[in-house]
Amino acid sequence: MERPGRAEGVRSTVGASRKLILAAAQSPRVQSFVGKHGMRLGAARFVAGETLDECVSVLRRLNDQGLHANTTILGEDVADAGEARAVASEYESVLQRLHDEELRANVALKLTHVGLDLGEEIAYENVRRVAEKAAELGNFIRIDMEYSAVVDATLGIYRRLREAGLSNVGTVLQSYLNRAEDDLEALLPLQPNLRFVKGAYLESPEVAYPEKSDVDAAYVRLIERSLRDQGYTAVATHDERLIEHAIAFAQGEGIGRDRFEFQMLYGVRPKLQLDLAERGFKVLVATPFGPQWFPYLMRRLAERPANLGFFLKSAVRR
Fold first, then answer.
1. Which of 59, 259, 274, 275 is deepest in the core (most CB within 10 A)?
2. Catalytic residue among 18, 128, 142, 144
3. Strand ranges (DSSP E) for 19-117?
């Protein structure tokens, strides 16, 4: 049995590592080095290349393995209206390419990438264009959730899209935010398609649970509540304990496999992804691409500091 003191020490060490990685993400020196060398040193494990062509090759391989996928053009915090419109146009092109290639893949995007920092109306108009293109092609988009300060705007835009008749849109709730369960209750009348994650941004204790055990407990409550309702539940975690809990809960409640799926990140637990697919569950792999991959990589390393070891080992071998 693990001694309480040791368990607390492990949690403290992981928490400190996470904060250190997220702090390093703000360092111009670190950004410069990783930007020049990171992809060949190991970032390619988590990012499906810098171009759409490279990403399409990865998506096809995932489909051939029996997996579904989504893709994201990496980027955020766009502060120019023209650039935000260009990003939306690029997403329309991605959707067309997915359709033409007959890939089992959809897209996920960040609202700050399509102009949220310039105002909700700009972001809404851009994401609506993307959603309408997806609907035209029989596809789906998901609005990713970002840091806590933009949750209200994100959920507000999601509601507006649904009210506009766009049912091919989903969003995300983060279990580490104290407000997540209230947000879920407010969304349930829409029969929403929701992805549930733990959360990857550094937040204060005033808005987010600081303890992993509380985050995990909230995650369980969220997926159980969602599964009991009439929406669609995307269980996005690499934690086998939570995955098996979701499976057992769904079976116990008589919830069909067409009402939920599992989602994981490209490069993280690939064997588990394949194992679940072989068991007959839908598994979707989040497969981002693009030259602006550094912030994404840092959050993946911070979520699971053990990933940093892989990255550093790759660097040493070169």
1. 59
2. 144
3. 68-71, 105-109
